[in-house]
Amino acid sequence: MTLYFRSICSSSNGNCLALWSEHTRLLIDCGLTSMKSTRQVLDSIFGTDVQADSILLTHNHSDHISYYPLRVLEELGQTIRIHEDCVDQLKEKHFNGYGFKKLNIKPFKNKSFSVGEFSIKPFKVSHSPSYPTCGFLISCEDKKIVIATDFFEWDSVFEYFLDSDFIFVESNHNLELLEQFYNPNSQFHMPNPQTGNLLLNAVGGSRKSPAAVMLGHISSQRNERDLARRETVSVFEEAGRQMDFDLLTAPLRECSELISIG
């Protein structure tokens, strides 16, 4: 079975990822800026029926979910999967006094759950203390995909990256650019060298390398796509380890290339 992945947008201004098989379609986050753009994205990724099988939310920051996408998701009858610890915060932060009486929220716990052909294992990552945040280990038959952004240390979640077929992971900022354009919120995100070390250790501890890795949630002011890629390549070169997988970077505000995971 072949799976397909595309980053729709990935930055501090908006995050939305799509993963699908022949029979099951997922969005991971829906941090789009308007009802119109949300409809356009669903239509462009999933066709004129604008139907996904589930929307997985990592956390409640506004660049991952907000009021206007919620309006469209309710209108289309989409199922929103969010950790049970985040449900009240979702309502308080994003409902804006609107009833959302028909919004289909289906909370998950820390254990695995299924959506169509996908088995999904959520795992907590270290992010802003006020915003509980999850990464996802997604399995389908013999394929293993890891999605993890918005975190600042990887030791506690390292095991989830082992033996993956595809990884989408945050590479948020360059440390020198952070000094020039300081942002206190960057302490809650992964700098390029740390992402490189996570990948180096994950590949070193695996029986196989992933076919591809995509770096995402790249800061527009404190990073560049080429810089994020170069710093990860440098980590592998300094360790004397061959990078035997495709290393890609997600555009900040546009769709990425289509990734086939087969």
Overview of the molecule:
With 262 residues, the chain is α/β, with parallel strands linked by helices. It has one domain: 4-Layer Sandwich (Metallo-beta-lactamase, Chain A). It is 24% helix and 29% strand. It is built from six helices and 14 strands. A seven-stranded mixed sheet has the order 6-5-4-3-2-1-14, covered by helices on one side. A seven-stranded mixed sheet has the order 7-8-9-10-11-12-13, covered by helices on one side. It is globular, with a radius of gyration of 17 Å.
Q: Which terms summarize this structure?
A:
262 residues; alpha/beta; Metallo-beta-lactamase, Chain A; seven-stranded mixed β-sheet; 6 helices; 14 strands; 24% helix; 29% strand
